[in-house]
Amino acid sequence: MRKEKISEKENFHGITEKMEKRPVLFSIGIMILSIIVTELPIASLLAFLENEQDAAFLQGIIEQMAVVFVIFLLLKKAGMEQEAGLCSFGKEIWLMLPAVYLIVLNLSDVLAGEMEFGMVKPGRWILFFVLHLSTGFFEEILCRGLMLPLFLKKWGNTKNGAYLALVISALLFGMAHFTGFLMGRQSLLAAVAQVIYATFFGVFAGACVVRMKSIYPMILLHTLINISGELGTLVNDCSLNESYYEIPLEGAVFLVILALPLLLYGLFLVRKEFKNGYQM
């Protein structure tokens, strides 16, 4: 039994070394695996739910939280809980306030009285909120909890290296949003715009996590942004994977410009932390 435990530790130590030696390759691999898991069509197994939207919401919750659980274990085994921001709840939450304008813009139709939710059942509201909370955990733990610390360990000993780590983690986060096009849920223009938007947001999110030394506030903010932006799925009684999203050129340009201030703000936030390289 003791030999087996030692062997397990040695095997995982080998995995940790590979993670730190080739962080980009490892991150791309785990990102692809995570996307595959979250795209598995298991809604048909949830036949006890009469509504297809409810089944789709529950599918997303199950798949995303399964990935989150695995990444949590990976971070714990690798001893990276502190670097991932899992050991504290952050004290500089006010740093995220500039991103509130995204929530306000997303809620413009609601504030204008153009959406009515009277027919939405309480159970569906619960599934909706839990789904987007699981998305917040899934995307933040993967990109800011795992990828960013790995890149900072690799390159963060210099100023340029620290910025490179931040940008690459954000770029991979952005590229993950190309899945919508590959799965036939978005036009190419809409996917490209979302990739750029998500990359800019990823720089901001990574900078906030670095400053706050905690990932939890960003998970909450990410959740609120997603909830405010997807309320239309409740009104239209459709799941996130059933609708096809197109966007005109001016809309794509506006989306990119919308996130540009967050990119610049994020780079500004970490100027002191990255001045002489980042000490983890």
The geometry reads as globular
Q: Separation of termini?
A: 35 Å
Q: Report helical residue fraction.
A: 55-70%
Uncertain segments of ≥5 residues (pLDDT<50)? 1-9
| Structural domains: how many | 1
The number of helical elements comes to 12
Sheet of most strands? none
The H-and-E topology, N to C, reads as: HHHHHHHHHHHH
Strand content: under 5%
Explained architecture:
This protein is mainly alpha-helical and 280 residues long. The chain has one domain. Helices cover 69% and strands 0% of the residues. The protein has twelve helices and no strands. It has helices spanning 2-21, 23-38, 52-77, 100-106, 108-111, 122-155, 159-176, 179-182, 188-212, 216-229, 231-235, 249-269. The longest helix has 34 residues, at 122-155. The chain starts with a helix and ends in an 11-residue tail after the last helix. Residues 1-9 have low confidence and may be disordered.
Task: Jot down its keywords.
69% helix; mainly alpha; 280 residues; disordered N terminus
Give a brief description.
With 280 residues, the protein is an all-alpha fold.
What are the SSEs and their pairings?
Elements: H1 2-21, H2 23-38, H3 52-77, H4 100-106, H5 108-111, H6 122-155, H7 159-176, H8 179-182, H9 188-212, H10 216-229, H11 231-235, H12 249-269
Helix pairs in contact: 1-2, 2-6, 3-6, 4-10, 6-7, 6-9, 6-10, 7-9, 9-12
